[in-house]
UniProtKB/TrEMBL annotation:
Pfam families: F-box-like. This is F-box domain-containing protein. CDD domains: F-box_AtSKIP5-like (cd22163). PANTHER family: PROTEIN NESSUN DORMA (PTHR14695:SF4), SHC SH2-DOMAIN BINDING PROTEIN 1-RELATED (PTHR14695). It comes from the Eukaryota. Residues 63-101 form the F-box domain. InterPro entries: F-box-like_dom_sf, F-box_dom, Pectin_lyase_fold/virulence, SHCBP1-like.
C-alpha cells in the first residue's frame, strides 16, 4: 500500500501572508469537482490509512465535520497541507463559501446568489469561491474584514465582475484581502478602490472600458492614509499597500492612481504575444 506524502505546514506570521497562497489550493480543487452531479472526480482516499494514526481511521464524513469547526485561515489551511486526503477534505466545497448567480431556489448553506451577500455572511479569513460563467454585477461593495475572493474558472476571463456606470468602484477594501483568478471591469470609474490594509491582486484582469472619458478611469485607486511603510518584512504583512502579480491592466488614464505618500515601486513587465503582465507594489514612502 502506497504511503501518503506528508508536507510540513508553514507557519506564516500574519493573516495577510496566509492569504497569499490559499487561493491556489481552492482553485485546484474547484477544477476537480463536478457541480452537476455533486460527485468528486478524485479517487477515494479513505482506505489509505497509515498504521500509526488512529485519527486517520475516521471516515471522510467524520473528518470533514471536524474540519468544519476550524477557522479557514490559518487552521483549515494548515490542515490541508498535512497530506493528500486531508487536502481533499479540507478543500471540499461544503467547507467554503460559494457564489452562484444561477441559483433560483433557496440555496444550500454556504451558497449565495451574489458576491455582496457572500461577503456579508463571511467570517474574517474565509475564502469565497465565485462560480465561472456570466457576469456578476458588483458596484461599491465594501470589504471590511480579511477575505479572499477566488474565481472558479480555469482562466481569469471566465469569472467577470462588472462595475456599472455611475458607481465609484466594483470593490472597496478596508482590510487585508486577496483577489485571484478574476476579471474586474469598470465602465466608468475604477475597478478596485483600496482604502486601508494590505491588498493582494494575483493573476487577475483589470479592465476599464474604452470611452471618451478615459481620463476619469483608473483600474486601481489607492487612497490609504495609514502609517508610513514599516520595516521589511513587516511592510508586506502589516502595512497598508497593494501588491500586484501576474495581472493584466487595460484601459484608463493610468494603471494606478495614488494619493498622499503612496508611490508605485518595483515595477516589472512581461510582454507576451497577446497581453502584457504586470508585477508592482504600492507602498508609503
Amino acid at each position: 500500500m502506497a504511503e501518503e506524502e506528508f508536507v510540513k505546514p508553514s507557519s506564516p506570521s500574519s493573516l495577510s501572508v496566509e492569504l497569499m497562497e490559499t487561493p491556489e489550493m481552492v482553485k485546484s480543487y474547484s477544477r476537480n469537482y463536478d457541480n452537476n452531479n455533486g460527485k468528486h472526480k478524485w479517487r477515494k482516499l479513505a482506505h489509505q490509512v497509515t498504521q500509526h494514526s488512529l485519527f486517520n481511521a475516521l471516515d471522510d464524513g467524520c473528518l470533514m465535520h471536524i474540519f468544519s469547526f476550524l477557522s479557514p485561515i490559518p487552521d483549515r489551511y494548515n490542515t490541508a497541507l498535512v497530506c493528500h486526503r486531508w487536502c481533499f477534505l479540507a478543500c471540499h466545497p461544503r467547507l467554503w463559501l460559494r457564489v452562484d448567480r444561477t441559483i433560483k431556489d433557496p440555496p444550500e448553506p454556504g451558497v449565495f446568489p451574489s458576491i455582496e451577500a457572500a461577503i456579508t455572511a463571511a467570517k474574517p479569513g474565509e475564502i469565497i469561491l465565485i462560480a465561472a460563467g456570466g457576469v456578476h454585477i458588483t458596484s461599491n461593495v465594501p470589504i471590511r474584514k480579511p477575505l479572499c475572493l477566488v474565481g472558479g474558472g480555469e482562466l481569469p476571463e471566465e469569472t467577470t465582475l462588472l462595475c456599472s456606470r455611475g458607481s465609484d468602484s466594483a470593490l472597496e477594501f478596508f482590510s487585508a484581502c486577496k483577489i485571484t483568478n478574476l476579471t474586474v471591469k469598470a465602465e466608468l470609474g475604477c475597478c478596485l478602490l483600496h482604502r486601508s490594509g494590505r491588498l493582494f491582486i494575483d493573476t487577475c484582469v483589470l479592465q476599464c472600458e474604452t470611452n471618451p472619458l478615459d481620463y476619469l478611469s483608473c483600474p486601481i485607486v489607492c487612497m490609504s492614509s495609514g502609517p508610513k511603510k514599516l520595516p521589511s518584512p513587516l511592510s508586506k504583512a502589516l502595512g497598508d499597500g497593494v501588491t500586484v502579480s501576474r495581472s493584466r491592466i487595460e484601459g484608463g488614464a493610468k494603471a494606478v492612481l495614488t494619493s498622499g505618500t503612496l508611490v508605485l515601486q518595483n515595477v516589472r513587465v512581461i510582454y507576451g504575444r497577446s497581453s502584457v503582465l504586470f508585477w508592482f507594489e504600492v507602498e508609503h514612502q
